[in-house]
Amino acid sequence: MLVHSPRARRAVQAAFFALFLPVFALPFLVIVTASLATGWSGAFPSGATLDHYRAVARGDALDALVTSVLTALAASAAALVTGTWAALAARGTRARRVVGVLFVLPVAVPSVVVGLALLVAFSEPPFLLNGTPAIVVLAHAILVTAFAYQSVAAALDRLDPACEQAAASLGASPLRVLVQVRLPLLLPSLSAAAGLCFALSMGELSATMMLYPPDWLPLPVKVFAATDRGALFPGAALAVVLMVTTLLALTAVSRIRTRAAYR
Amino acid sequence: MTTGIRFDGVTVAYGGTTVLESFGLTVEPGEVMALLGPSGSGKTTALRAVAGFVRPTAGRVFIGDRDVTALPPHRRGIGMVVQQYALFPHMKAGANVAFGLKAHKVPRGEIAARVAEALEMTGMSAYAGRYPRELSGGQQQRVAIARALAIRPGVLLLDEPLSALDARLRSGMLTELARLHRELPDVSMLYVTHDQVEALTLADRIAVMDGGRLQDCGTPQDLYRRPGSAFTASFIGSANLLPVTVTDGGVRLGGTRLDVPAGGAAAGASATLCVRPHLVGLGAGPNALRGTVTEVQWRGATHRLGVDIAGHRVTAELRELRETPPLGTEVTVHFAAHDAVLLPAGADGGEARG
Amino acid sequence: MASTEALSGRRPPTALPRLRVPAWALVLPPVAALGLVFLHPLALVLWQSVSPEGGGHGFSAYADVFAQAAFRDALRNTVLIAAGSTAGALVLGFALALVIAFVPFPGGRAVGRFVDVFLSFPSFLITLALLFVYGSAGMANGVWTGVTGAASGPFDFLHTPWGVLLAEITYFTPFVMRPLLGAFSRIETAQIEVAASLGAKAPRIVRQVILPEALPALAAGGSLVLVMCLNEFGIVLFTGAKGVTTLPVLVYGKAILDGDYTGACVVAVVNIVLSLALYGLYRMLTTRMDGVRRARA
């Protein structure tokens, strides 16, 4: 539309792909290729191997994957409940602005600082969480709650109040309206938020680096440990596992979303 | 079963704006009351005060003899139909209709029969298994009406229910609503609309609203023939509104004396004379007025003539003329004394709406 | 109409005495939870930063930290890299989003979806990929030595601020593209067609029709990216560059590697203040954008 002559359009598209592919697609291609390579010091990797993945399946990398998934599930669940509750309760009240600022604040505070704050606050009784998996889950939950809150609050703003009012006029109590009308209508946004929370938690590194106990090593920490000691190719394999898990979760969630998107 | 609605001095204000002011109105059991007015007149606010979505700042709302002012919407036992249908998109039509019955804890065994009955009543039996998105606008509105009727409310609130439909569907639905009213003689209906045709067709009485106030209330015939205010006269049908001065046994428009029953108005007072355009005749007759033709419109069965009489515009709706007077010529128009209504002054007069 | 008596709505209002909870009170549980696990710990960080090792309270720790060259370097690096990355991401993101939205091509939707997925991946993957491409034993240098026969390649910027800058621009550009694509989709094609029919060429249309419309989204995306750049940790950590230290890396170093909690808290407070100031700006811009959008609706 903007560029009318076919030749100019082709030129623009060529420029787009010349920019887009190397900058955005190449990194992922490189990581996937490296994870399957024996070595890579020229234009192309030297040989194909599945050794790095075998190592993943054998070693404690599998534990790291399980750790990450469990952390992400727990943190997402906590964030969704808290964020949704806050968004629902604050809707239409004067508290809305304050709640909005409070719940988006964790985005503005550096993740490393969130980790530091938890270390400072929960290193002594009665709240001795330092050194337990709980502190990692807590950090992830705090960091992703902002996204859960934002997506639910935005969806609530878009929600037509007519449906809820129709339900109330038909004699449905506020609880019934919430469970049978409002939450089902929010389902697409809730599942999108769940996917986002899970993905962000899977990739969280900053706060985790500050907090992780020796028996609770999430995948990103494992990837860092591998690359830090120079094991780039096994690191790449771990990174691929991380990406694939994230993608699987996002796909599953978007399946739910398509089924839940009624209108 | 007690039905009927009573507004007792209901005032609604948001911030500093009063959208409904000391509104008093009674809807009798089984009556269809239309709230008619332009947008912003407070008619929807009045309806939402009955539904419980708007809390009055003053006054009380009664459903039957029960004061519902402080009750939350779900405990008022009303049925409501809104312009945008507001069907639950994640439920099939049947489940939509069953929703209110479940909320009212109707025994499980009874629900299916009542859903079928309600869908039957609106001619939607065949569509119970469809999702709202699979239905047309008119079908969705029928489901919405079935949903509201299924709980057998004593009071049915309709907020511009036909506005989202196209003209052809609208007239069909109007007939349907009239039939439902005949089949459910006990249900009081409050029908909010800005369309005078809907109000005239359906309502037993019409409450005319403007600027957050009740302007007039009466049967459609009364309001059309004997409007109580210039606003009513211009909002229901169209009207010529002329500023006149009351004299002994008549009125005067500029220099012309007119023979119109002045009622109780004191001589010398200002008033507004209302004459319907289709009651104005061309040529000599009683209450003759001379003026210049400023506009001629052909409307098929009728001709509409605009005549300038001493700076006042008078519209005459005439049965199709063989020959129309050319623009700028002088003509005489007249009207019968009993076709004119004298209204209190203060109206802006001018050309009629609609 | 026999069953109408059973309707709950028919009961007199006094039949069900209920505990009245004001609507806003329901907000309290989640806010209390947030206060306990986030706001209170944050306050403790602030408190610790003014409680030096020797006991008592004061700003001596701030004086100490501000006097360190490492801190001043980190502050300068953080601000410069963040500003540079934001500028780069804005330019690149605007150009790419413009093509996706207004020069449609097959696969454009897939590219849009790819951008969404990109946003949900961790930032350090970019650095990891760049290690393979530009690292000392990576692709680019390998090609160079292969072609020229030299002992080592010329690409050695990965452990410098430039490497961080490249990684951050790559990672954060999609964060600019997403709000832009949203804003672009709201521009009516008719508007552009009318402008074109009036004889406006593409650059003029971009400048006079598209840019004003996209400005709020650009501002919002830009300030979000600025805040995220100021707080970025993974990318800098993965470059493993000793020469490039930013505030978050300094917090990590002081707390975990040196065990100096008070110093870490001081740096953390500085980092928070910097981020919050920009975050405030971001909120201001987005609320204004919302206002504009609502005014148009």
TrEMBL record, chain A:
It is a multi-pass membrane protein. The lineage of its organism: Bacteria, Bacillati, Actinomycetota, Actinomycetes, Streptosporangiales. It comes from Streptosporangium nondiastaticum. It is found in: Cell inner membrane; Cell membrane. Residues 65-254 form the ABC transmembrane type-1 domain. Pfam families: BPD_transp_1. Keywords: Cell inner membrane, Cell membrane, Membrane, Transmembrane, Transmembrane helix, Transport. It comes from the Bacteria. The keyword Transcription does not apply. PANTHER family: INNER MEMBRANE ABC TRANSPORTER PERMEASE PROTEIN YDCV (PTHR43357:SF4). GO terms for cellular component: plasma membrane. CDD domains: TM_PBP2. InterPro entries: MetI-like, MetI-like_sf. The chain crosses the membrane at residues 12-37, 64-88, 100-122, 128-149, 185-212, 232-253. GO terms for biological process: transmembrane transport. Belongs to the binding-protein-dependent transport system permease family. This is ABC transporter permease.
Automatic annotation (TrEMBL), chain B:
GO terms for molecular function: ABC-type quaternary ammonium compound transporting activity; ATP binding; ATP hydrolysis activity. Residues 5-236 form the ABC transporter domain. It comes from the Bacteria. GO terms for cellular component: ATP-binding cassette (ABC) transporter complex. InterPro entries: AAA+_ATPase (IPR003593), ABC_SmlMolc_Importer (IPR050093), ABC_transporter-like_ATP-bd (IPR003439), ABC_transporter-like_CS (IPR017871), Mo/tungstate-bd_C_term_dom (IPR008995), P-loop_NTPase (IPR027417), Transp-assoc_OB_typ2 (IPR013611). Transmembrane segments: none annotated. Its EC number is 7.6.2.9. The keyword ATP-binding applies. The keyword ATP-binding applies. Keywords: ATP-binding, Nucleotide-binding, Transport. This is ABC-type quaternary amine transporter. It comes from Streptosporangium nondiastaticum. The lineage of its organism: Bacteria, Bacillati, Actinomycetota, Actinomycetes, Streptosporangiales.
From TrEMBL, chain C:
It is a multi-pass membrane protein. Its main location: membrane. Keywords: Cell inner membrane, Cell membrane, Membrane, Transmembrane, Transmembrane helix, Transport. The chain crosses the membrane at residues 21-47, 79-105, 117-137, 157-177, 214-241, 261-282. The keyword Transmembrane helix applies. SUPFAM superfamilies: MetI-like. The keyword Transmembrane helix applies. GO terms for biological process: 2-aminoethylphosphonate transport; transmembrane transport. GO terms for cellular component: plasma membrane. It holds the Pfam family BPD_transp_1. Residues 75-282 form the ABC transmembrane type-1 domain. It is found in: Cell inner membrane; Cell membrane. Belongs to the binding-protein-dependent transport system permease family. This is 2-aminoethylphosphonate ABC transporter permease subunit. It comes from Streptosporangium nondiastaticum.
